[in-house]
Amino acid sequence: MPDDTADPGRALLALVVRLFPICRSITGEGVRQTLAILREHIDMAVREVPTGTQVFDWTVPQEWSVRCATLRTASGRTVADFAACNLHLVSYSEPVSRRLSFEELKPHLHTLPDQPDLIPYRTSYYRRDWGFCLRHRDYLALPDEDYDVFIDTELRDGALAYGEVFLPGETEREVLFSAHICHPSLANDNCSGLAVLTMLAKALSQRRNRFSYRFLFAPGTIGALCWLAANEERVRCVDHGLVVSCIGDGGGPVYKRSRRGDATIDRVMEAVRCDGRRAAMVDFSPYGYDERQFCSPGFNLPIGLLQRSAFGTFPQYHTSADNLDFVRPEHLASSFRMMLDIVDVLESDWVPLNLSPKGEPQLGRRGLYSATGGHTVTSDVTMGYLWVLNLADGEHSLLDIARRSGLSFRDIAHAAARLKESGLLAEAA
Amino acid sequence: MPDDTADPGRALLALVVRLFPICRSITGEGVRQTLAILREHIDMAVREVPTGTQVFDWTVPQEWSVRCATLRTASGRTVADFAACNLHLVSYSEPVSRRLSFEELKPHLHTLPDQPDLIPYRTSYYRRDWGFCLRHRDYLALPDEDYDVFIDTELRDGALAYGEVFLPGETEREVLFSAHICHPSLANDNCSGLAVLTMLAKALSQRRNRFSYRFLFAPGTIGALCWLAANEERVRCVDHGLVVSCIGDGGGPVYKRSRRGDATIDRVMEAVRCDGRRAAMVDFSPYGYDERQFCSPGFNLPIGLLQRSAFGTFPQYHTSADNLDFVRPEHLASSFRMMLDIVDVLESDWVPLNLSPKGEPQLGRRGLYSATGGHTVTSDVTMGYLWVLNLADGEHSLLDIARRSGLSFRDIAHAAARLKESGLLAEAA
Amino acid sequence: MPDDTADPGRALLALVVRLFPICRSITGEGVRQTLAILREHIDMAVREVPTGTQVFDWTVPQEWSVRCATLRTASGRTVADFAACNLHLVSYSEPVSRRLSFEELKPHLHTLPDQPDLIPYRTSYYRRDWGFCLRHRDYLALPDEDYDVFIDTELRDGALAYGEVFLPGETEREVLFSAHICHPSLANDNCSGLAVLTMLAKALSQRRNRFSYRFLFAPGTIGALCWLAANEERVRCVDHGLVVSCIGDGGGPVYKRSRRGDATIDRVMEAVRCDGRRAAMVDFSPYGYDERQFCSPGFNLPIGLLQRSAFGTFPQYHTSADNLDFVRPEHLASSFRMMLDIVDVLESDWVPLNLSPKGEPQLGRRGLYSATGGHTVTSDVTMGYLWVLNLADGEHSLLDIARRSGLSFRDIAHAAARLKESGLLAEAA
């Protein structure tokens, strides 16, 4: 097996390719099939929440399954076939088998007039309905005749499934990473997020961590609510977190801050880079993915949203163009490395205390300072020592020091480690 | 009688036209005549403060009245006549009847060399003096001969008059609106303010209000001090307020913040529009109109200054060009509507509490969310619901939510009302 | 003797000219000779700290003295001679007398390839070493032959000397000014600082001051640490301070804030001007001069760094081009006047309390307000009165009021003085 961490792009893309064809929705076998594939990489609990379970203001819906779905002209020409592309069928469509006039059919057809070659993605989760999504170009060519609708779906009591990985660390304080698992054949949104978090969980499971890490692979909204309802007390342990989606394209990164706006994770995201680029920082807004639930006022968790291109801003979003051509192994790899960097910052941040706080300690006799004086330029390494010592008053974390100094977190963490080895720093109580 | 609210421009201009010719000053009949006209529209108390009354560091001055005032050459040509334009006479000029040489006269003449066709407005309230204000063009043509000055004015013990309208609301917490009434024939400064506040008082008197509203029509500085001295305890009830002047031209609006800088009224003024334009926000400074008194350190009331064009910045300011051509009914109307909007924000602001704060409540089953999912764009209506629910933690008013969301106060207030009807919100205690 | 304050440039330059040739280092006779010259102008204590004394994490080093130092080719041509320019010898070079091959010599030669005509300044204080500093142009012309190194220096137990001037004021709260005294023939860095602080001490010694003033003329780092170690309790009295260096050239001024960032001295430096220019404000960083020690976390004193051109940014920095041509009497004079202005702000700042805080007091009857009203423009003098009265609530110093009003500190201080004379202000308790 290749080393996923060294060249993670290939393994990540392979996982995306396997997940892409599955017809996922907020319930049903698609989610279970997806979780089964993820479990080939990482030990994961699969939770099943029965239909009808009350979760806060919501009720877990019935399970939805699709055998087939076709839209044909009365003369027998196939207009849309679920088997060809699962986006053709509005998700959660109820079963239908009837002939309709074109006028009766029209309200059930969804197209994108501005993107006539793309099939849109549409859902009708919480109102019983049915429909087909078409290329607008095909829609315009439809003859005014009768149509045969055959949707062989089933809505029945069952359960909502979600996956949960928990990696215990040295403390019970935890980091929560979450990716929605409810979208059908959309590669970036969110096969990419599922793949990157799975491989990240695998990587973290192979090492010893200070924090505990939790990974959620749950259907959007209702899945996050199910987890929150089952963990109302536990969420107090969540110190940091990210919702991850649309992480396989070459844009961004874009980070939407937590509702708090000044959480540690919000500052971590200022410190990391992806392909050398800082994340564009966007203030919290209550629309998006499951940060909507995690950051609702009753929880207000320190969780932001990480994406490459932000949802709704790229033309492929929620269309058939969000396919396997849109995500690239190098982008999946750089997103994965950024996630590792985020974890590294969280793991290696600490609050140093200068044990020799009156004046500078003599760095030269410890080999930490240039022996020859008078040079115009000072190295980042020296500046790292000086900044850490100067701000090591017990009120600044390494992340704070990196931010104020303008040096990288890596440089500051390295300087602090050397100073600690030299006996000049202790960890603040 | 026409509906002033629907087409307020005509009625406002008519009132300005009636007020314009009157020779007002800080005391005297001009103020009483002005109050009498305003009282045709709204029930108003007229307060009389006797000459000699001590108000803080000041003393109420004598009443000033003018019968006539002319400046003539010895050869009998009239150079300036108060009857033609009351700006010709320096306000509060003492009585004079004598012949002077041109050299003796010169220190008593005031002109605007940079605006040679305009008569300036000048006063000498607190030092006994007299003078005439001339077009600089006319001044340059004056012959070097003797002049006859005849100023038939009177300064005698009497009283300072000001008008006060109080509209009790559901609470004793009050909003104070104030316009200075001491300027003679200057249309924008401040016949416009007097007219707009009178019509606003009339409109508010015809409806039920949460706040109590107080309107002051008082001479600048000394009038405001008289009211403050008579209401030293009462001012604790003032939660919000505006000084209003120069509100009939087409500029601005310009809002000068209260001394506090972060009072609710300061944030309200960020939220309202006039003819679709935001107000230019200017920090407090201790020069201007009666906000100088209301915002003195001993009171520090949450009161700002609202204008269209800011005093001192438009060429007509304090000249004969601030006439009936300068104010327009459509500007008076848009200023009036802005005042109504300000009142609406104050009246309809409240602090919501999300009764379902853990996760989002299910808006779809309440008809508050699109039934079909997957669209790229979310409506402002939906965003309003989401923002209100997310920030309804008892620490954000609707105004706060509007500010943070970037949505209009109207949209946020509408969303909050719908959510309250749906049982999802309560008013925070 | 000329009046140094009226035309300080001449006297300052004369002092720089006398100090320039001396070979200073962190210890040795050069420092004592320098202090002796400064003592011709101001009564100064000379402190001697014995070699081996422990100061915090450091030990006072041995005294270094130089008799002569030459580098010659084996054929007898002189390449570098300490007598010609003391920068040729690496400061603190140990004694050497031997013949070396060119290859053996090379690691001991220091040049500036980008500035081939300049001799660099180099030190090796805390590691026993020796070396010569050469023009790169001369270095390139060196023949590949043997060289005779003769460095007749001595390192022996003795003492570190520094100078200290203390001028008691009305209170024991003190202002600390400090200039490093350890650099050899570098005119701007820091003969300029030594000269300006000496003349400032002289000027302040001739007047009565509210604050006590302390002036330190100490070797960089170890000298400041010696003073701090001897005054660990006393530093609690330091309310304000500046490290002063590179103050004789025509750039800047540049002010580096104290570690606190919002100390009074940081705001004073926003208020003063040098040759009409505001100081460029730079945030604290832990590299530079002795602010590194004063602002270490165990002291965190309210002390910033004042320079004209910032160290490391001008091409003459730490080279033989930092000579007597680089500093100019007019720049020394403007820096000196800026220092006097800084002292004036510190001395004359106070917190006023408006004794008539309800409304404006009547300025007109006190001769503090224009008798004629109606003008468009208000004078800075009037605005000064209004701002001081408005903010004289006991929570704003004159410096605060100057900052918020945008008026100069001088105008605000003048207005406050007039208002206090008029009985309208008291000093807040």
List key phrases describing it.
8-stranded mixed sheet; alpha/beta; 429 residues; Aminopeptidase; elongated; Arc Repressor Mutant, subunit A; 3 domains; homotrimer
Can you identify the CATH superfamily of the largest domain in chain A?
Zn peptidases
Low-confidence stretches of chain A: none
CATH class bucket of the largest domain in chain A: Alpha Beta
Range of helix content of chain A:
25-40%
Q: Approximately how much beta-strand content do the residues of chain A carry?
A: 15-25%
Shape of chain A: elongated
Average pLDDT number of chain A: 95
Radius of gyration of chain A: 25 Å
Quaternary organization: homotrimer
What is the name of the CATH architecture of the largest domain in chain A?
3-Layer(aba) Sandwich
Taking the sheet with the most strands of chain A, its summary is: 8 strands, mixed
Overall structural domain count of chain A:
3
In which order are the strands of the major sheet of chain A placed? 1-10-12-11-13-18-14-17
How many helices of chain A in DSSP terms? Answer: 12
What is the CATH fold-level name of the largest domain in chain A? Aminopeptidase
Distance between the termini of chain A: 43 Å
Q: Which pair of chains forms the biggest interface, and how many residues does each contribute?
A: A-B, 38 and 28 residues
**How many strands appear in the DSSP assignment of chain A?**
20
Structural class per helix/strand content of chain A? alpha/beta
